[in-house]
Amino acid sequence: xxxxxxxxxxxxxxxxxxxxxxxxxxxxxxxxxxxxxxxxxxxxxxxxxxxxxxxxxxxxxxxxxxxxxxxxxxxxxxxxxxxxxxxxxxxxxxxxxxxxxxxxxxxxxxxxxxxxxxxxxxxxxxxxxxxxxxxxxxxxxxxxxxxxxxxxxxxxxxxxxxxxxxxxxxxxxxxxxxxxxxxxxxxxxxxxxxxxxxxxxxxxxxxxxxxxxxxxxxxxxxxxxxxxxxxxxxxxxxxxxxxxxxxxxxxxxxxxxxxxxxxxxxxxxxxxxxxxxxxxxxxxxxxxxxxxxxxxxxxxxxxxxxxxxxxxxxxxxxxxxxxxxxxxxxxxxxxx
Amino acid sequence: xxxxxxxxxxxxxxxxxxxxxxxxxxxxxxxxxxxxxxxxxxxxxxxxxxxxxxxxxxxxxxxxxxxxxxxxxxxxxxxxxxxxxxxxxxxxxxxxxxxxxxxxxxxxxxxxxxxxxxxxxxxxxxxxxxxxxxxxxxxxxxxxxxxxxxxxxxxxxxxxxxxxxxxxxxxxxxxxxxxxxxxxxxxxxxxxxxxxxxxxxxxxxxxxxxxxxxxxxxxxxxxxxxxxxxxxxxxxxxxxxxxxxxxxxxxxxxxxxxxxxxxxxxxxxxxxxxxxxxxxxxxxxxxxxxxxxxxxxxxxxx
Lengths: 336, 302
Description:
By secondary structure, chain A is an all-alpha fold. Chain A has 15 helices and no strands. In chain B, strands 3-2-1-4-5 form a 5-stranded parallel beta sheet, with helices on both faces. In chain B, strands 6, 7, 8, 9 and 10 form a 5-stranded mixed beta sheet that branches.
């Protein structure tokens, strides 16, 4: 019985890893530049210096790596949050974290902090905005000493509304050249010239995945209900707090580097739960891998569907993710 | 083979990370108007803006233009060039694959994309949207210099300045009329001193009622209060279709405005007004000067 389960898990992991690798390879091979598949081994063999090599490894590869980190981080954050709140509609963005990050970036653009600090001001201000919201939501819900899950959800949703209104206020007051800076950022993109930020995102996402595994059993217990979890000997308060902060950190990191890319954190956890079941021991890593593959795939589509246009990746994640999800839901007839 | 591929990849990562550490925080605006006089005249130019494309054609440097954006449709020949995306979102892969030696962008381009291009060793020059007529002339001269067409650029600018001066001379002693140029409908958007469009009003002897607004958002109430003698509507889509007409009808309801009383509400094609090349500037200025002073005779007007 136990062996059977492990074999099943290994199979799932194997399939997901295979999907991730093939999606990445496909993504590396297709694009507007129209480099033929047969040329690719040749280009790699020739090494650096050619324009085609530069397209593969300086333009496509960083996007794939960032897609891996962001897709993984957002899906993982979604899984953790849905686990804590036992609410199927929670996703990384419902808690106002993305709203806070947008507000931070808008303030940066409006007050031209980037002139003083440089281009790095964008991710920093995004992250500070996200962090501020997390602290705010967290401390508001901690009034009574315990982390009230319903309270935190409502506060988060309200903070989202407030920050999007403030973003609109800034947009209404700003000049046209600042305006499109804000719009770009809100649309989200995996195009990031700064390799340091990309590496940071990868380290952060993988670090988050490892850390989440210390709490996978707590999450399993929480799925039964908070009271049951307490009876099982789980320090529910502590786990909830750490997991909440971890999920917020993952979201803040993703949003500050890549902007707002919706749907990944909502759909992938549900989709994976349909395949793997609700055991967080396998669910956490498989959502990470599936989220990474999904985002890389969507980004590949975004930059190739209507060439030479490049669509915002959020458009593709929304359409494909939503459609696949509705289809899967109607087929499986599962309740969430 | 396998090893070399791997080492190549690692090398790539290392170089990229070194680059990112070496230039971690360049300021976006670092090379607006930057012209390196020692650089050879570029032979493969990509334009990322409609006005830049038009200016390149004016300079007669279109043989070096290898690609532009999907919205570069003026002149006719510009449509035939390779397309690399839009004004704000270019396709980097395609740009790199075309091996340009110069990419000219506007300040609408995505900063991240330009940085990436620079990191990849592509020469990028950025021109901001001009704030006034003299800045536009300056930019045109710089572009001429950049493309090795200084003489042509100077000739065009000299002519333009002469024509503009002639119009200014004729309107100088005429009574200053209060003018409102409307750029947006919802919200109502006006031309302020921040925009080179203000020069259309000043040069044709008008007085911009929204001159000192901080940003362009304006209110109908204020228009009523300032009581302009001329209203010029130039919003997106106002030249063709109903938008302009409907907006004109909306103004016509306010009988207290002098412009409405004297039927001085006009619709102008925004492409002509807002995409500043020296030639279109003179054309648009002539048109507007005639709207503000209907009795004005401008010899060379078209």
